[in-house]
Amino acid sequence: MSLVAAAPPSGGPIIAEVDMGADSSAPVVRATVVQASTVFYDTPATLEKAERLLAEAAGYGSQLVVFPEAFVGGYPRGSNFGAAIGNRTPKGREEFRKYHAAAIDVPGPEVDQLAAMAGKYKVYLVMGVIERDGYTLYCTVVFFDSQGGYLGKHRKLMPTSVERIVWGYGDGSTMPVFDTPLGKLGAVICWENRMPLLRTAMYSKGIEIYCAPTADDWDSWQATMAHIAVEGGCFVLSANQFCRRKDYPPSPEYLFTGMEAELEPDSVVCKGGSVIISPSGTVLAGPNYSGEALISADLDLAEIARVKFDFDVVGHYARPDVFSLIVKDHPMNPVTFMSSTGAESEKPVAGGSGK
């Protein structure tokens, strides 16, 4: 198994390929994970950048393209939005207003743009976005087919640490696995991947191409991705941003808190580490820490059956007589109206159906 890095176009990202030795009895899917930075606070420019990267991946023959967590809308790395226990600052409130303005409605016009891109370049697209639902934001992944159809979304169930200041919590109604011609496709976002019960739910839905958009560039992330690939018997595609300080608005408009001194413009604030891993735990492409890149591999789905001969976590290696999992997969709406006839009518959070 060899790793071949094609010469990048002038100023363009690196493209890597792995030749897996395809088996004609099962699909072979060329997949690409995008490692690139958001244009922060500028959603139209971010969408333009997304299309350039998507076009390049499609030109390389990719059938599936996965973008990082919060690529559209931005990951607010280093910000605390002026929040402390018992206090919020006016500057922090204004920062949230800007962040809210950069988010997108799902569905909405930006989703339509992304769908059109997927159809134009004939690829399945998995895109990390910040979803605006009224005045609550969600870290969300949206899915599109190669005909330009919007398939659905996954809202991050559990924001991590300070993310909870600005992101709401998803529910079990948006945990889809889509049965596509490429394979069964789904996504789990960043440290949700550390939730064993969520992983088990995804495995039980038969996920084969497990997308893991993230903002985690720690070395330990690679071990997490390899473990999931082996545990789930699935291909794992993790896409992270590569960002420098200059990719964010300048100080004092945007501050990286907790730093003893202001970062230099070229300081790396997220080093990437995007990676593609096979069901046997073999790294097929990446991890890449060198800059913006398109990282690609050919996925031989026949490998899934080979590895599940030994270990099928929700099949022959399960013990339902000892362990069981209950998943509440309906929308958890905050308000239910009761009519005079006794009929119930739910007042959903906009977009909360998962469609």
Shape: globular
Q: Which spans of ≥5 residues are poorly predicted at pLDDT below 50?
A: 1-20, 350-355
**Integer average pLDDT:** 90
Strand content: 25-35%
How do the strands line up in the largest sheet?
Answer: 1-2-18-3-4-7-8-9
Structural description of this entry:
- The chain is α/β, with parallel strands linked by helices and 355 residues long.
- It has a single domain, classed as 4-Layer Sandwich (Nitrilase/N-carbamoyl-D-aminoacid amidohydrolase), CATH 3.60.110.
- Helices cover 20% and strands 28% of the residues.
- It has six helices and 20 strands.
- The strands form five sheets. It has an eight-stranded mixed beta sheet. It has a six-stranded mixed beta sheet with strand order 10-11-12-13-16-17, covered by helices on one side. It has a two-stranded antiparallel ribbon with strand order 5-6.
- The protein is globular and about 60 Å long.
- Mean pLDDT is 90; it is low at 1-20 and 350-355.
